[in-house]
Design brief:
Aldehyde Dehydrogenase, Chain A, domain 2, 6-stranded mixed sheet
Amino acid sequence: MQEFHTINPATEEIVSTYSYQSPVVLEGKVANSYKTWTSWRKTPIAQRSELLMNVAKILREKQIPLSRLITIEMGKPLDQSQAEIEKCALVCEYYAENGDNFLQDELIQSDAKKSFISYDPIGLILAIMPWNFPFWQVFRFAAPNLVAGNTGLLKHSPNTTGCALKIQEIFLEAGFPEGAFTTILAHTDHVEAIISSDQVAGVTLTGSTKAGKSVAALSGKYLKKTVLELGGSDPYVILDDADLTLAADKCVTGRLINTGQSCIAAKRFIVTEKNADEFTEKVRMWMSQKRFGDPLSGEYSLGTMARTDLREQLHQQVTQSINAGAKCLLGGKIPDTTGYYYPATLLSHVSEGMPAFNKELFGPVASIIMAKDEHHAIDIANDTAYGLGAAIFTQDTERAIYLSRGIEAGCVYINDFVKSDPRLPFGGVKSSGYGRELSPLGIKEFVNAKTIYVG
């Protein structure tokens, strides 16, 4: 079968070489995962939860080598990789401790002597996951579904194949039966055959809107339930009465986490005219202090872009915006150095028609957009195909809550940057996808909400 490589984006050296699995091998793995489900679904939830607690323990015990693997394969700073592993342990603990309660029968008053909703696992779930959070994206799918009694099949991004195989190894080490969680090395050309299988009950994808539309079309063709978490162009609205020091700090932090390679990163800073100059200078000052360099060293807040093609795409969007009239206040040039680095970049005078105005710029690039007033700011915030996350900065909390209801996004954070939390639902609207992960809602996406009626 066709070979492919994982490449260290900081050194541009090949890390490992793998081969895609054949259709016959993939078919066998699907069949084995389905067979495991027929017994796993009957395993007491207390036992499933206990195994998930084992996973959390292993993640913490192996945090350092696992973090290094993340950084070597996709280039984020090592301390952020360590935080990612800890977050995976937390989501395992969250569902291990709460899954049983979330899935309890729900009594419903009706004309029956007794009626209730039973939440039953539906089967094997295919997960198609991206490279930017190679452990977290997987665990926020795997933890709730395994506790719910489903089994999981992971098709990961090729450039984080080492992480994908390591995750399978962790589940086996924790005591999960073979087939409960399986990593497959599947070429994109083989995805339709997997989705079409009668043994696959649902599909979850985190990735680009383009990939989401493709998977949604295939899943619709074969009548499979889907959850899609796609791209974002998150607006951060800074109102007249905002604490500008706080706003600048949170905006820059939210923009540059993971070297800006996050669907929920702060991408558009929408500031009212009153504060535009002062806010812009504060952001410029904060961003100018963010240096890039060897992500394993622990000395830099910015790592690399994950792949050279992603850096080229980002730079093209920056260049197009500048050519259309945006001003580059910081960065904006590909450095002449080994590694797929891109500097912290700040664009001002961003307006409609530029990629930086309402598209997704996936990297360490921030856009400053000026609004006439708060109503205009909300209009700009919604002037995008995306609707994943958003933030509002103001000292009037009640006003912010009122305005947040008018923002088209899956979440709105007030006086803070957007982040995911196992306890809170996560997902988007519009071209950012549908369905929810995490929280009690996340564990119920791939279960059968079955009505039981006693007459």
